[in-house]
């Protein structure tokens, strides 16, 4: 039987939508892997020695630890052939190298954590470099609710704010569930994070009330912030 025009048109539509669905899965996977890589590197920066004195970083060790954390978290080795992952790894190496050379010394020169190479500061710098390396095609950043905000430069964009306030901060949102959406502009992914015991020294108690935009003392397991990924169409 000869295919009629309708069935050809239908075939085209089905193939197209299958391709779009596939593209969405790919983007979600890429975006999720980016959050895993950023977390894998950030957890290496959670170290009193290098927070106080980043000249103590050993770059090769940092990369080995990051890749090992990544493998544990992703359940597969770091993929050298993935362009986006490589951009983020290059950004991470760039920032750790700069920190080692003391290039951020004067950047954070006031407040309670002056001069400290904090994990959140590492994440911010790595995200900015990543955006540059992808020539603006993709971004990765830490952000949070306006009430918990410490550094105004991490303020949420409108779409992030909506997801944080209406979904992540609602008691009905399952813990750790990722938000993702393909919009006209591109692919959005937001991964919620929660305060653990290690965060509370700064985000809990009187210190939390002091550093947050609103006088909020973070508690164990509370929503603390989110890693946001955006990949432009
Ligand atoms: C040593 C103190 C300290 C610890 C420990 C700490 N933070 Fe922070 N956190 C800060 C400071 C200070 C900033 C602002 C950083 C800057 O100047 O850019 C910040 C920024 C952030 C941000 C970015 C949004 C914003 O408000 O600027 C998030 C999200 C965040 N912290 C969550 C956490 C979580 C979750 C943990 C534990 C896993 C944690 N922090 C551990 C002090 C700390």
Task: Describe it.
The protein is an alpha+beta fold and 233 residues long. It has 2 domains: 26-136; 137-233, no CATH class. The chain has 8 helices and 4 strands; from the N terminus they run αααααβαββααβ. The protein has helices spanning 5-45, 48-52, 59-74, 83-100, 119-133, 158-168, 197-203, 205-211; strands spanning 138-143, 179-182, 186-194, 223-232. It has a 4-stranded antiparallel beta sheet with strand order 1-4-3-2, with helices on both faces. A hairpin with a 3-residue loop joins strand 2 (179-182) and strand 3. The longest helix is centred in the first third of the chain and has 41 residues, at 5-45. The radius of gyration is 20 Å and the shape is globular. The protein starts with a helix and ends with a strand. The relative contact order is 0.12. The model has no long low-confidence stretch (mean pLDDT 93). The structure holds heme C.
* 3D shape: globular
Number of strands: 4
* Structural class label: alpha+beta
Percent of residues in β-strands: 5-15%
What pattern of helices and strands is seen along the backbone?
Answer: HHHHHEHEEHHE
- CA-based gyration radius: 20 Å
What topology emerges from the helices and strands here?
Elements: H1 5-45, H2 48-52, H3 59-74, H4 83-100, H5 119-133, E1 138-143, H6 158-168, E2 179-182, E3 186-194, H7 197-203, H8 205-211, E4 223-232
Antiparallel strand pairs: 1-4, 2-3, 3-4
Helix pairs in contact: 1-3, 1-4, 1-5, 4-5, 7-8
The structure holds heme C.
């Amino acid at each position: 039987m000869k295919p009629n025009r309708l069935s050809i048109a239908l075939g085209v539509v089905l193939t197209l939508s299958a391709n779009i669905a596939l593209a969405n899965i790919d983007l979600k996977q890429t975006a999720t892997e980016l959050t895993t890589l950023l977390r894998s590197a950030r957890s290496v920066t959670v170290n009193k020695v290098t927070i106080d004195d980043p000249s103590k970083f050993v770059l090769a060790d940092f990369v080995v630890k990051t890749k090992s954390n990544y493998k544990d978290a992703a359940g597969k080795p770091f993929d050298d052939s993935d362009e986006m992952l490589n951009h983020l790894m290059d950004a991470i190496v760039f920032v750790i190298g700069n920190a080692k050379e003391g290039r951020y010394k004067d950047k954070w020169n006031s407040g309670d954590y002056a001069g400290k190479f904090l994990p959140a500061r590492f994440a911010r710098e790595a995200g900015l470099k990543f955006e540059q390396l992808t020539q603006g095609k993709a971004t990765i950043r830490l952000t949070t609710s306006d009430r918990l905000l410490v550094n105004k430069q991490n303020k949420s964009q409108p779409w992030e704010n909506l997801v944080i306030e209406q979904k992540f901060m609602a008691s009905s949102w399952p813990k750790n569930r990722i938000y993702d959406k393909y919009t006209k502009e591109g692919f959005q992914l937001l991964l919620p994070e929660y305060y653990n015991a290690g965060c509370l020294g700064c985000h809990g108690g009187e210190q939390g009330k002091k550093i947050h935009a609103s006088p909020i003392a973070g508690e164990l397991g509370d929503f603390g912030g989110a890693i946001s990924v955006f990949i432009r169409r």
